[in-house]
Amino acid sequence: MLNFLHLSHQYLHWRRPSGPPAPAPSGTTRTFISTPKGDLELLCAKPVHPARGIPPVFFVHGGMGSAWVWHEYMRYLAAHGVTSYAISMRGHGASWHPSFLRMLYTTTKRDFAGDVVTGIKAVEEWEGRRVVLVGHSSGGGLSQFILNEGDVEVEGLALLGAVPGSGSYVAVLLFLHPPSHVTV
Fold it and tell me: Residue 51, SS3?
């Protein structure tokens, strides 16, 4: 049996960012949304010539990501007349970072959902309309959770490699023990 543990654990560490954040990616601007716990990073890409009638797109990253993972999509949309935003949830990107233990043991799905909802509501206020919500991986699962809970209403939803809104644990259980009428 191969033992890869020695290859993985040495690279897993957590450090709170220090110093000022790196400049926003080319073609985007950065703002911070104030919350009682800390500031949340929000990147924005606005087109030079906005297309009429197209709602803004709001991106939600997955675990271990940040708003920056959406940079290329945001630049592409801006080049085609669509305004887009991407949020970094707490503990990610240039947003506020709780302590390691707090992030690991006391930060809940509801906490992350609150960060995303705060970002969506800020964008809706600025833009004067609902957004199209795009979530990747756990950000897709979180997007489903937010909509299911009725926290916000959106113009549309796109899920990219998303975890089910119920969480990946349920998906794994269904895969391992499918109902009798389902074949895998």
Answer: coil
